[in-house]
Amino acid sequence: MSDKLDLDHLRQWIGKTTEASDVVTKYLVMGLRATLFQEIGEPKAGDAAPWTTHWCLAQPVFPMSQLGPDGHPTRGGFLPPVPLPRRMWAGGELEFFDSLRIGDEAKRTSKIADVTVKSGSTGTLCFVSVNHEVTTSRGLAVRERQDIVYREMTSTQGAAPAKAPPPPPVAQHRESHVSDPVLLFRYSALTFNGHRIHYDRDYVTKVEGYPGLIFHGPLQASFIVEFAARLRGGKPPKKLAYRGVQPLFEGSEFSINASDKNGGMELWTANAEGQPTMKGTATW
Ligand SMILES: C/C(=C\C(=O)SCCNC(=O)CCNC(=O)[C@H](O)C(C)(C)COP(=O)(O)OP(=O)(O)OC[C@H]1O[C@@H](n2cnc3c(N)ncnc32)[C@H](O)[C@@H]1OP(=O)(O)O)C(=O)O
Fold it and tell me: What sequence ranges are listed for the domain FAS1-like dehydratase (predicted)?
């Protein structure tokens, strides 16, 4: 475990809150629909936005001088100053109560819920969980827990996997697309997310040691939510718990998969080899 991690200090951030609000616009909805491979249409005031539109709203805006080396705002403001260099979106839980609609003013309240340190197969991991609630004039729209993970640099990060992966799972429902850097750029722009691992190939390969640009966790979760809702006649899951299990890299086919289970669904995104990259369990 990293000796630089002062968990007692980092846990002083638990309970810290912040609020922000934003308006759902027609062009945001069109841009997100296009990025999620949906029909763009000509949306008008009052029309429902994609279910995870809240991730595009009221994102933190900082001057360039206050960004860290990874392109995110310097840590130690709302988020604790975790001294591990590689940030990832680990997973979370989403609950949907109402759609966001064009013209809505949405208010998000956020609270640091937990900070923990674990020892993973890839080294020391520091998880920061943030609870968010998004409301409109009609009431609560989305409640979520977002888990961010910070990883250390390891000398083996570029190494080949130690053992062969299991056979890929077979899905009852499957949709596939081809990814490219434009898709990732579009999602970074829609979410005002400056994280370099999504668009700066030199940085992601030479500094963070991954083999290529990385799909955003929330983009994969958005595909999962929209796929689940489509398979259930437009109704989003009441609850989706999801976890990124390995990075999904640019430049190849990827798929969104679902199988019915216990009245709900198991859903996952998968890479070109069919191996899951994000797994979720949805209930209605
Ligand atoms: C936006 C945005 C950033 C991004 O979008 S980054 C891209 C999306 N995210 C990913 O691609 C993450 C994919 N996942 C991984 O690379 C690995 O799963 C990860 C997170 C590095 C962990 O792998 P390990 O093999 O090191 O971990 P273990 O499986 O050995 O587990 C150790 C303990 O940690 C818990 N854990 C593991 N993964 C998760 C997870 N995703 N969420 C929550 N907890 C996790 C696991 O249960 C073990 O816990 P124990 O209590 O059992 O010890 C942006 O930055 O804005």
Answer: 54-144
